[in-house]
Design a protein that fits this description.
This protein is of the alpha+beta class. Helices cover about 35% and strands about 15% of the residues.
């Protein structure tokens, strides 16, 4: 109805007079029912917001643990000073050395190794999917792009592209695959080289691996793990290396060769195992929260028009603002 009242200009833009909006007549439910509808939808929004805050907290915890163990070396410094490392049991504390040794990166925990990423991973470019098959209409295949990466690392699904053409089996992403952005259109290269873990897609959908993303394959499982690498790809040292070696002017690029050339400190297998187990607990919880939030958002968006139109009555709903979902 509103689209029919839009005035089109000569430059392809459209204009809608505010008076049109003021004169628009709407059929609204009684005030009491409006409040009941708001209470139902508010309960869903509250849970979605709570999940968002919980995941922000989990992300902060993971970032802090990586910083403490692998950048600041807090457990090693504590043992060197004769103190008990904070926040860990005796078995975990025993895994850390109590001394430093000199290296090309400066003093590092004794016995830990410096390796190029090329020693432990491969990075595979995605497929060049044909533009003629790109679509804004929902279908079973979702083509992931650098736009699905958050600044600082992480997955975003707010805007997705759909693909209707043939798909090579090798370029279908799996749950929990670790991928990196290889291209960035922003001036500051805000997401270039950052990681994301692929979440389970919506039911009936697949995520596709396109040429602007790099998929990480671990070649030395005793030296590196997915969540350790994820945190490494979020680190300042790695970020500085990627930006320093980026090519292009308007569009920034990095490459598997540049990423694999980065040298980093890798801990002992025992420390790596404990770190991965702890982060996996937090990661799975965050994934569950994200999945629940997507379900609740779909439910909210489905309920709203039905409640406003009277197709569904609030009398049949037991959800109210403040309920636990």
């Amino acid at each position: 109805m509103l689209l029919g009242k839009v005035e089109h200009t000569g430059i392809g833009a459209g204009k809608l007079d505010t008076q049109v909006l003021k004169n628009l007549s709407l059929a609204l439910p009684p005030l009491a029912e409006q409040k009941a509808i708001a209470s139902i939808l508010g309960a869903l929004d509250d849970k979605i917001e709570l999940n968002r805050r919980m995941n922000a907290t989990l992300e902060g915890m993971a970032r802090a643990l990586f910083q403490s163990w692998f950048v600041d070396f807090d457990p090693v410094r504590a043992k060197l000073d004769g103190r008990k490392p904070e926040g860990m049991d005796k078995a975990t504390a025993a895994l850390f050395p109590d001394a430093f040794e000199e290296s090309s990166l400066g003093p590092v925990p004794k016995g830990w190794t410096i390796r190029a990423l090329a020693d432990v991973i491969d990075v595979k470019h995605g497929f060049a999917f044909e533009g003629k098959y790109f679509s804004d209409e929902r279908c079973g295949d979702i083509l992931l792009t650098p736009g699905n990466f958050a600044i600082g690392g992480g997955f975003k699904d707010a805007k997705v592209k759909y693909y209707t053409g043939p798909v090579p089996e090798d370029y279908i992403l799996c749950d929990h695959d670790l991928v990196l952005t290889m291209t960035d259109l922003s001036k500051a290269a805000d997401t270039l080289g950052y990681p994301a873990m692929i979440p389970p897609p919506p039911m009936g959908y697949r995520y596709l691996h396109n040429q602007r993303l790099g998929k990480v394959h671990i070649t030395q499982s005793n030296a590196a793990t997915p969540l350790f690498l994820y945190r490494l790809f979020c680190s300042e040292a790695y970020r500085h290396e990627i930006l320093a070696g980026a090519t292009g002017t308007t569009v920034k690029h990095t490459s598997p060769t540049r990423i694999r050339a980065f040298k980093s400190l890798f801990p002992s297998a025992g420390v790596l195992e404990v770190f991965e187990k702890q982060l996996n607990i937090w990661y799975l919880l965050a994934t569950q929260n994200e999945s629940q939030s997507r379900t609740l958002a779909t439910l909210r968006d489905t309920l709203l028009p039905k409640l406003l139109s009277g197709e569904l009555s609030v009398a049949h709903s037991t959800i109210t603002k403040g309920d636990k979902l």
